[in-house]
Give the backbone structure.
Amino acid sequence: MTTTANAESTAETTNRSGLRVDRGSLRSLILYPVILLAILGLLILWLLTADLTNTERVTLAPGELWTMTKQHLWLTLVATVIVLVVAIPLGVLLTRKPFRPFKGFISGVANFGQAAPAVGLIVLFATWIGYGPTAAIAALVVYAVLPVLANTMAGLDAVDKSLIEAGRGMGMSAWAVLWRIELPLAVPLMLAGVRTALVLVVGTATLGTFINAGGLGLLITTGVNLDLSRVLITGSILVALLALTVDWVGRVVEHIARPRGL
Amino acid sequence: MSSQASAEGQQNGQGAGQEVTGVPILLDGVTKQYGSKSAPAVDHLTLEIPAGSTVMFVGPSGCGKTTTMKMINRLIEPTEGSIVIDGEDVTTMNGDELRRRMGYVIQAGGLFPHMTVAANIGMVPKMLGWDKQRIASRVDELLELVSLDPGQYRDRYPKQLSGGQQQRVGVARALAADPPVLLMDEPFGAVDPITRQRLQEEMISIQQELKKTIVIVTHDIDEAVKLGDWVVVFDEGAHIQQYDSPERILSDPANDFVADFVGRGAGLKTLGLARVHEVPRMEAVVVTPEQTPAEALRQAEESGHGHVLVLDKQQRPIAWPSVEQLRRAEKLPHIHEENLPVVGTGATLEDALDTMLVSRAGAALVVGARGRFEGVVDLDTVMETLRDRRAGENQPKAPVGTNDEDITLERSPETGEITIVPSGGGAR
């Protein structure tokens, strides 16, 4: 039998490369934050050299900016955690056989949440719950559930049915198959959904300022209302940088959490 | 290749020597019905699968063969009837626990892509609570059994293996906890013909060693007669058309359906079933290279043979000159002649016939272990063996298999043999 194994192993050397790390994507992952830092540096340089008015100086004080950034991140984080807690179990549930019939309905509801204009959602929740961060978070959750839910279901549906059968056939319980086979194999798609949701939430959290929820959106509204273009530009760039940073973190996590062997 | 030596005795699952580790399986009046209106996918099937034998389920697609197999480990729950494994009714026991006691192999191996070869194979032992050390040594043992070098393959991912290697790992995984029963669903359907042939040969030799009860679903009649001790030919609704030995399926199909399914060339396929060791062997005139041609000629004339076989000290054939060649020769050859018509005892009659047809003597030399000469076979003896096999002599009785509803099964207390007792007082 040894001849058999040898004959087949000659074909292996080419297959071996199947697991190589994608160098292109690794390089872009390292380059990405460097570019973001460079843009941030340019922004700071520009603000330091600019001849700022008193109002601008007060609004753009480093302490103020840091507080707003923290508020913004807080909104994002809380909303995202709630999205994950709601959408992932829901996605798992809706791909289980007894609940499949509800898949269309729930997907429709989630679609509605995303299709509705974000400003409208935030104001709607504010009039219902009251002005403040709670309403903003509720609106953000509704807005961002869809990508996570959709990708969780897509990821689980994409798992080769024969693998599930193999698992069940060797005596794994349905639960064990979910934990040890389906979810690990769905991780790449699920994480992509989470990243999409995060980026959506970071951008949309800007609107929180309309209902007194704080965040970097304040800079933009202030800039528009008082016609301070430098404040407006700074706010916009900071929000964009924050969204891109979150996107980068998401990509890094995806890279690390991707199961080996795929 | 060990296939040559191990192929001996393959024809009978209950062959002597190895201990049977498999257990008998009985499907008792099993029905699977999807919805209430449609025809049942499996219709009142009663089927006995003897311990330690390989039973092949063949039939056209949609005939219910896969459904039947999946009801044995209850991946599909039967609507009616019971499944008895080793005398124990498993129809209502916990399905997961039942499945952990059976190996299950699917097409293309079904390996988990995010786990290494070792993790894939160690899955069931891990579920059964084996310790790490025991799992690791079992993994290596199994990789060797399926002819993969453990050091080289243990830590690879399925993606880094060829199709045939994945299938081997799939078989190793199914055998991990040493289950008495192995279920295989079109196991060699996804690999190229050459690899398939090799895997089939290996499967035969693995079964030789392990003597499990194996059920294999296939749509390939050639594979069925090659691997099976018994072959079930199903038609729609898992209606048994014939449940018999490969020889009788080929030579004596029960009806047109089976005959159509077997197709043309049934006689030639029979040649592939019988092995050289089953054929009676004839003697030859044997000389050593030290003797003179004249002595050899005299021996040949005394016995009336047309050829003389020259053997070396280890009894290996050197040359097989004819009488005419001997008359011209000054001394007997000392160097091993190439292209001698030699076949191993484990070779199929198909191979033997092929060798004979191109040999000058119209016969073939049979060699056993280490190339030792064992005798001569010729066309006449091969034909005689084929005739005997066709007559179905010396063949054990086929196991029970029927779709009849009005029967009861009776087990003999002494032999454990199962027989059908028609009930309904002969009304039929």
Chain B has two domains: 3-273+397-422, 277-389. The domain at 277-389 of chain B is CATH 3.10.580.10 (CBS-domain). Residues 193-210 of chain B form the longest helix (18 residues). Confidence is low (pLDDT under 50) at residues 1-17 of chain B.
